[in-house]
């Protein structure tokens, strides 16, 4: 691929999703965009680049962006953040919201849905403590294609074996041919909608917990800072933000402070959770 | 070093599982059916058992029931690893005392995930 075409594709992806593609990622671009070019009857990436320049077709630009975003995810990814949510953050929020009995949770860049469904299953397990509560789980992603898969809740045998304990598979899934589908009672707990994190997030409202894990790692510093500022607006002052294990707000955004003893969990610098939660050991 | 007994009548499956589990720092024991596995357990109980279902002489579910009712047989973590990939078999295995269940084919990521879930990694 010549450097002008590479620049064209990387600019499209950067401006629309924030994803930074460096020259060494040219293989990734080729492996993801060649199938897209073929589907459109184009011979190679040079032809695809010409088509972009010629048509500036909005749908094509969207397809290119979606093809380049990473959708790697699995149930209860990294385990620890879900233990922290259940054992430290949730009990605290149940106290803080006792009068209102309402919780709003947002999983940003949810990909094919394993993260919001993991949260939904976890909350279902805690149902006894939450009788009479109204819980909303909103799950968003830039890619409409992955959201369609997420809504269907259909997973391969391989997908249900990465991170999902067998007891939860038995409790919340049923077989559909060679696939496994999460039960409608869990699917109904999650509302999926398309959302680009680079856009103004004002319309999403305020959340008590936001999971935005393994997203910022793909952005440059300026984009990280911009997205974190928007997320801060969407997080209640006494809410919690979960980032991925390799991500931090430190040196990027001073609107958050880490919650003591909880790696990767942050709260608003303006207020914060009223007490530092203490995580129990993983179940 | 924790020990893992791999019980499978397929030499290839045992070899693949052994390679992955040795990488994860397990000491490996092998048996090609339930009867051989019981003899190994009588000598010294392993920490983990990776167990196939369909085997000659004694199958996996009969082995598991016998193991769980024997002295110290409640100790090892038992993870089924089988081509019986339906809910009825999963429920039968868990009610017989299996701790986890792997549906073949498996890879390193699945082995690691399942062994982590049961706390042996």
Automatic annotation (TrEMBL), chain A:
Q: Which Pfam families does UniProt cross-reference here?
A: CheR, CheR_N
In terms of PANTHER family, this protein maps to: CHEMOTAXIS PROTEIN METHYLTRANSFERASE, CHEMOTAXIS PROTEIN METHYLTRANSFERASE 1
InterPro entries, from UniProt? Bact_Chemotaxis_MeTrfase (IPR050903), Chemotaxis_MeTrfase_CheR (IPR026024), CheR_C (IPR022642), CheR_MeTrfase (IPR000780), CheR_N (IPR022641), CheR_N_sf (IPR036804), SAM-dependent_MTases_sf (IPR029063)
From the Swiss-Prot or TrEMBL record, give the protein name.
Chemotaxis protein methyltransferase
SUPFAM superfamilies found in the cross-reference section: Chemotaxis receptor methyltransferase CheR, N-terminal domain (SSF47757), S-adenosyl-L-methionine-dependent methyltransferases (SSF53335)
Role according to the record: Methylation of the membrane-bound methyl-accepting chemotaxis proteins (MCP) to form gamma-glutamyl methyl ester residues in MCP.
Q: Which reaction equations make up its catalytic activity?
A: L-glutamyl-[protein] + S-adenosyl-L-methionine = [protein]-L-glutamate 5-O-methyl ester + S-adenosyl-L-homocysteine
Ranges of residues in domain CheR-type methyltransferase: 1-257
Q: Which GO terms describe its biological process?
A: methylation
Q: Does the keyword section mention Methyltransferase?
A: yes
Automatic annotation (TrEMBL), chain B:
* Keyword vocabulary terms for this entry: Phosphoprotein
Taking every annotated instance into account, which residue ranges of this chain make up the domain Response regulatory?
3-119
Give the PROSITE patterns listed for this entry.
Answer: RESPONSE_REGULATORY
Q: Name one Pfam family in it.
A: Response_reg
Q: Does the keyword Transmembrane apply?
A: no
Record-level GO BP terms? phosphorelay signal transduction system
Question: What SMART domains does the database record attribute to this sequence?
Answer: REC (SM00448)
Chain positions found as 4-aspartylphosphate:
52
**Protein name from the UniProt record:** Response regulator
Protein's organism: Sneathiella litorea
